[in-house]
């Protein structure tokens, strides 16, 4: 997300590994796991996940205007999911803390800014997208089995530093997350 809330800044490498782990799970949850080729713990914030060119939709003359709009909003939803999954995995799994209103509001504000910039969405159009993503991921990261799997995934990422899409899929399958 362009206007990253303070909570999105990593405290250390462990924090970053959980953020990346959360984003990878978010991609799976939102059926977008085909949109990345690798994850790298040593990458900068925005390059920890190497996306396929399809993630960066620049237009397709074969799509109707409505189809293009739906595609763009779908990718925006994935972007919101990535930011929320990053923050919730770090807060709920790594810190073993509850999600407070400040975190939720910071994430919503960032989602609104991005929605306005990328899709010309107003706050009242962003809120239902955000609420659905936020509630789904809050339930997911509240599950003790998911939390344990995220601990394992974050540890594997710290050890390996870089994982291909195939490596990620193998681990996610072993952890019963896909």
Task: Provide structural commentary.
- The two termini are 26 Å apart.
- A 3-stranded antiparallel β-sheet has the order 2-1-3.
- It has a single domain, classed as Methane Monooxygenase Hydroxylase, Chain G, domain 1.
- The mean pLDDT is 89.
- It has 6 helices and 3 strands, in the order H-E-E-H-H-H-H-E-H.
- The chain is mainly alpha-helical and 178 residues long.
Reported by name, the CATH topology is Methane Monooxygenase Hydroxylase, Chain G, domain 1
Low-confidence segments, given as residue ranges, are none
User: Could you tell me the mean pLDDT?
Assistant: 89
As a percent range, the share of strand residues is 5-15%
- What is the 3D shape? globular
How are the secondary structure elements laid out?
Layout: H1 13-29, E1 36-40, E2 49-51, H2 65-94, H3 101-119, H4 123-142, H5 144-160, E3 162-164, H6 165-174
Antiparallel strand pairs: 1-2, 1-3
Task: Describe this protein with a few key phrases.
6% strand; Methane Monooxygenase Hydroxylase, Chain G, domain 1; single chain; 178 residues; 3-stranded antiparallel β-sheet; mainly alpha
Short summary of the structure?
With 178 residues, this protein is mainly alpha-helical. Helices cover 63% and strands 6% of the residues.
């Amino acid at each position: 997300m362009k206007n990253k809330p303070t909570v999105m800044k990593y405290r250390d490498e462990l924090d970053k590994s959980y953020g990346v782990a959360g984003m990878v799970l978010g991609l799976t949850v939102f059926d977008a796991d085909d949109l990345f080729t690798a994850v790298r713990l040593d990458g900068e914030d925005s390059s920890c996940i190497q996306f396929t060119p399809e993630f960066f939709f620049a237009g397709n003359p074969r799509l109707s205007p409505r189809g293009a709009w739906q595609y763009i909003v779908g990718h925006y939803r994935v972007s919101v999911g990535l930011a929320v999954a990053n923050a919730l995995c770090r807060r709920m799994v790594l810190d073993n803390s509850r999600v407070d209103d400040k975190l939720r509001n910071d994430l919503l504000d960032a989602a609104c800014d991005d929605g306005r910039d990328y899709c010309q969405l107003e706050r009242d159009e962003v809120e239902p997208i955000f609420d659905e993503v936020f509630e789904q991921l809050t339930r997911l990261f509240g599950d003790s089995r998911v939390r344990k799997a995220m601990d394992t995934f974050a540890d594997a990422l710290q050890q390996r530093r870089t994982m291909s899409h195939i490596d990620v899929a193998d681990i996610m399958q072993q952890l019963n997350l896909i």
